[in-house]
Design goal:
Helix content is 44%, strand content 26%. By secondary structure, it is α+β, with helices and mostly antiparallel strands. α3 crosses α4. The chain is globular.
Length: 167
């Protein structure tokens, strides 16, 4: 029975990976290896998924629900940088030393996700340089999007602060 459940979970994870652009067009052996680094997980509404400064020992593909990324800003409290949803990637700090989360992540709704063990994936990338290159290239696209969102949010905050100063 346990073997059946494990095989079923692996098939579900593989199906999710094939639907996500991050993993599309990887070779079958690469997908199979990554599947061994993954498991299904969930977070309840309000639960903290990650906290800034914590070890980034995993990353997630969101299957449903919403996760808010925030950054503390002096005199402003926590500022929402962006909100992630279905099919989005959560976490890229696992790629680069010191492998620590740089933002806080909190579930805004109940969330189902595929969780990848970062150490396992880094090991695969060291053993298969093409896989490492592909993951780095694909994660970089996500990082650029997140940085652009953070820039837009900070620009909006500065505009709001300037307007508030005029009142």
């Amino acid at each position: 029975m346990w073997l059946f459940l494990i095989m079923r979970q692996s098939l579900n994870i593989r199906r999710v990976m094939l639907q996500n652009p991050l993993f599309r067009d990887l070779s079958q052996p690469q997908l199979a290896a990554l599947t061994h680094c993954a498991r299904l997980t969930c977070f309840e509404r309000g639960e903290w998924v990650a906290s800034s400064g914590d070890s980034a020992d995993q990353f997630f593909i969101l299957l449903n629900g919403k996760v808010r990324l925030t950054q503390p800003v002096p005199n402003e409290g926590n500022v929402t940088i962006m909100t992630l949803g279905k099919h989005d990637l959560l976490g890229w700090s696992w790629l680069f030393p010191p492998h620590a989360w740089r933002l806080d992540a909190q579930a805004l709704t109940n969330v189902d996700a595929v969780c990848f063990d970062a150490s396992c994936v880094r090991g695969l990338a060291r053993a298969d340089h093409e896989l490492g290159y592909q993951l780095t290239r694909r994660f970089s696209t996500t990082m650029l999007s997140h940085l652009q969102s953070a820039y837009d949010q900070l620009r909006e905050l500065a505009r709001y602060s300037a307007l508030a100063g005029e009142v």
